[in-house]
Structure formats: structure tokens, C-alpha cells
Design brief:
InterPro entries: Deoxyribonuclease-1_AS, DNase_I, Endo/exonu/phosph_ase_sf, Endo/exonuclease/phosphatase
Protein name: Deoxyribonuclease-1-like 1
Number of domains: 1
Distance between the termini: 15 Å
Main location: endoplasmic reticulum
Number of strands: 13
Helix content: 25-40%
Family: Belongs to the DNase I family.
Keywords: Disulfide bond, Endonuclease, Endoplasmic reticulum, Glycoprotein, Hydrolase, Nuclease, Signal
CATH architecture: 4-Layer Sandwich
Shape: globular
Number of helices: 11
Length: 340
């Protein structure tokens, strides 16, 4: 028996599969429009942040002239000329003609493609017009994202994990859906609860359980009172996983500490595809050595992000690779079990 496992070990080491990560981000740009797009330092920082992500949801895009988003894409392409980026945008949304926003998804075409779009019509009977800014739902295909399951009872499971990855014997989340939402602060509880209805419709319409909800939910401090949480199905449903902890600070100002921006995944299968503890705010102020004033010129929010596990196929050309820490651990476990 040990000789069989040793053979598997040698085969795996001889031609080990590489893994990397797939990053999904959500960023409230705080009134991004023509004025902000003229600030070269701000645009460079935005490009640095967005190009870290395979998919980046942008909120509070107020591009009334239709020039600020193309300008951002040009800056991104100049900053990262080695990759190709595209975007999809909602229509301008809002109950007031004087204040409207767009949802914008910018994505790296080497690692992900858009397969479908759906503008939620906010027409649920008995709860019409629940949102100020209705979700603009996007379905993506990312061939490299995946997860391996069913190994917990196997001997030498660390080694088996490497072997299965090498053999492409794994369940892959090839497609997933992103539902964005920027809630209205004065109506956060109702909009978060109504988001649950959007989730159910999308799951049924596209016959998928692989759904992530993300954005500036205003889900903390004075906008979502603790006593109201029991009334939000998006919180009470045990099949939904809130990945950004309640004690995270997604705000730039030193005077505030609120976990407004969130990422929620539907179902255990999708949750198991998430890199553990990877969901967090990205403190670009600290990362890029900015003053608080400089950071606030970019946004008053930090982006939030999460990593999905990735299996890199030999035939997939996009993206860099690095050795899998899982395989290293599996090798050590194997050696301990065989020789002790």
C-alpha cells in the first residue's frame, strides 16, 4: 500500500500542478465623475487598486457626461499594458433626476468573461420599488476557479489533493453570479432584506447556486441597528455566509470605524471555493503611503475583496502561477504518515 502512495507522490512531485488566486473586489468610489477623472494622482491610485482584481465592482459612479468611465479604462490600460480589461455598466439608477449612480464592473479578460446580464426590474408584487438603485446582476465565467471536496475521510488526503488537482479530478465553479448593491443609508434594513428576493429570483432564473452579493451595504453603525438584523433575511438565512467580519473598518476616515462594505456568498459549495480568511478591506492608504487627505481624494471607503481558489490548467494561458502551499503540506503529511 505504501508503495502505491509513494508512486503517486513521485508522480505528483515530478509534474506538480500550479495554483494561483482569483480576486473579486467591490469599491465605492465616492462620487466618481468628471471632476475626479481629471485628477491624475487619483486616477493612478484607482488604476493601481482596480488592476489588483480580476473583477472589480465600482459604485457611486456618477458619470453624467459619459466620459469618466472611459477615462478610467484608459488609465487602467496605460498602467497595466500586459493585461486586457473590459467593463459592463448599468443604466443610471436613482429615484431623483438630480442624483443617479451606475454600477460598473471592470474585469480582466484573460481570466474571466461575461456570459449574461440582468437589470433587476424591482417589480416584486407587494414590494415594488424596494430599491433606490436596483441591482445590476452579472454572470461571469472563470475557467480557473474551483474547489475540491470529499477528501476529509481519505488517508493521505493532503497528497490526494495534489494528485486530484494534477489529474483535473475536482469540482469546478466555472460560472458565478455577482449581485451588487449600494443601499440607501436611510433605508438600509428594507433594501438588505429585499436583496434576498433578488437572490431567489436570480438563482431560479439562471439555475445556479453560485451567487455572491457585494457592495456598500451600509451594514453597520447607525444605518443597520442590531435590533433590526433579525428582520433581514440576508442575515438570518444560515445558507448565506457573510465574509467581511462585523469588526472590519471599511472607512478611510480615522474618526469612523464601520463595516459598511460587505461580501456575502450563497451556499457551502461557493463558500468552500473561497480562500479562508481572504475576505477583507484593502487599506490603500497604508499600502501606498498616502495621507488621510490624499486617500479621501480617492474615496471615503476602502475596497473590500475576496480570493477564490484557483486550479491552473496546462491549457490556460492567462495569469501567473506559483507553487501550491496545499501540496507542500500534503507532502509533509504523507512523509510523516509513511515513515513514522
Amino acid at each position: 500500500m505504501r508503495s502505491i502512495f509513494l508512486l503517486l507522490f513521485l508522480l505528483t512531485v515530478a509534474d506538480a500542478q500550479r495554483s494561483s488566486e482569483f480576486r473579486i473586489c467591490a469599491f465605492n468610489l465616492h462620487h466618481y465623475g468628471d471632476s475626479k477623472s481629471r485628477k491624475s494622482d487619483v486616477m493612478l491610485t484607482l488604476a493601481r487598486i482596480i488592476t489588483r482584481c480580476d473583477v472589480c465592482l465600482l459604485q457611486e459612479v456618477r458619470d453624467s457626461k459619459g466620459t469618466a468611465v472611459p477615462q478610467l479604462l484608459q488609465t487602467i490600460k496605460r498602467y497595466d499594458s500586459t493585461s486586457s480589461y473590459q467593463h459592463v455598466s448599468s443604466e443610471r439608477l436613482g429615484r431623483s433626476e438630480s442624483y443617479q449612480e451606475q454600477y460598473v464592473f471592470i474585469y480582466r479578460t484573460e481570466t474571466v468573461t461575461v456570459t449574461d446580464l440582468y437589470q433587476y426590474p424591482d417589480d416584486l408584487k407587494g414590494d415594488e420599488d424596494a430599491f433606490s438603485r436596483e441591482p445590476f446582476v452579472v454572470r461571469f465565467k472563470a475557467p480557473r476557479t474551483g474547489q475540491v471536496s470529499g477528501l476529509s475521510g481519505l488517508p493521505y488526503r493532503g497528497l490526494f489533493l495534489c494528485f486530484l488537482i494534477e489529474s483535473n479530478v475536482f469540482s469546478v465553479i466555472k460560472e458565478f453570479v455577482l449581485i451588487p448593491q449600494h443601499t440607501t443609508p436611510s433605508n438600509t434594513t428594507k433594501e438588505l432584506d429585499a436583496l434576498y428576493d433578488v437572490l431567489q429570483r436570480v438563482k431560479k432564473m439562471w439555475r445556479t447556486e453560485n451567487v455572491m452579493l457585494l457592495g456598500d451595504f451600509n451594514a453597520d453603525c447607525g444605518y443597520l441597528a442590531k435590533k433590526n438584523r433579525k428582520n433581514v433575511r440576508l442575515i438570518t438565512d444560515k445558507n448565506l455566509y457573510w465574509l467581511i467580519p462585523d469588526d472590519s473598518d471599511t472607512t478611510v476616515k480615522l474618526s469612523t470605524s464601520c463595516s459598511y462594505d460587505r461580501i456575502v456568498v450563497n451556499g457551502e459549495t461557493f463558500n468552500s471555493a473561497v480562500v479562508p480568511s481572504s475576505a477583507q478591506p484593502f487599506n490603500f492608504q497604508q499600502e501606498y503611503g498616502l495621507t488621510e487627505e490624499q486617500a479621501l481624494d480617492v474615496s471615503d471607503h476602502y475596497p473590500v475583496e475576496v480570493l477564490l481558489k484557483v486550479v491552473r490548467s496546462r491549457s490556460f494561458a492567462g495569469g501567473a502561477s506559483r507553487s501550491s502551499s496545499v501540496c507542500v503540506f500534503g507532502t509533509l503529511l504523507f512523509l510523516l504518515q509513511v515513515f513514522m
